[in-house]
User: What shape does this take?
Amino acid sequence: MNPLIRVIPAFLVRTFASPYVAGDSLEKAMGVVHKLRKDRGLLATLDLLAEDIRTDAQVQQNLTTYLRMVDAAAAPDVPADARPTLSLKPSSYTTAGMHEGGDGNGSLEAMLQIVRAAAAKNVALTIDMESRHWTDFTLDAIRRIHAEGHRHVGCVLQTRLHRTEKDLEGLPPGQRVRLVIGIYREPSDIALVDKPAMKDRMLAFAEKALRAGHYVEFASHDDAYVRRFVEQVVPKAGVGKDRYEVQMLYGVPRERFLADLRRQGITARLYVPFALSWDLAIQYLRRRLDEYPAMVWLVTKNLLSRR
Assistant: This one.
């Protein structure tokens, strides 16, 4: 990690993180989910900030928490059509991280346990995509899960990676796919480094995915690209509003734009991360700042826009 990122005081990192993290408990996160649905008509996907763990105790804690998240998402007070989806990262369930030369031992088994619990309660899951070291592992896991009959599990593809078009072609039929540009810094021989090019690819891959019969979750904060997706890509693909949705990150100020999408009858969902402690949330944001230094400016701009 960049030494400058390490020395940013924790209280300042927490100031940056607080608008984007739905608290330090599952109960607080579910409170945010209920409020988003009640006040703004927005759906949510819950994510536990618990990647790159170091101990078996953390593995068990993450697994236990996700099983609790399944129960919370399927609670009687949550309408079936408003249940949050759950996003999980393979690195949350192993101490043998692929990015550190490990083999991801135990991760697939833990995810399958969550997948089966979610299937029993009709809760949708998404397997997130991490750095390039995890791509093959994650896509292999998706295929294994799909082969077991679990159609409630979606995946994420990063349009910055040069391999993504081929990965898209290899997805199981009828897959739910969240398209993102990706936040992980990758070398130029592995990925695009020009952000507009990543976004252009996102539009192209969205059309390709829709034409292939997949359900597309278009995840972007760029209003212009979201409009191009809705107004150009969707009509070209010839699909209805039941075949896609738009996703953004909790805390990013896009209230008016999201309200406009909702008025058009377009499903909008916010990605809602939470932690089991603020220490873990601060670790998460330090990693994100190291991977994407421009986030300092983006976060500052968003904080100022709230004043």
About this structure: The chain is about 45% helix and 15% strand. Residues 81 and 295 are 34 Å apart (CA to CA). The mean pLDDT is 90. The first strand starts at residue 43 and ends at 48.
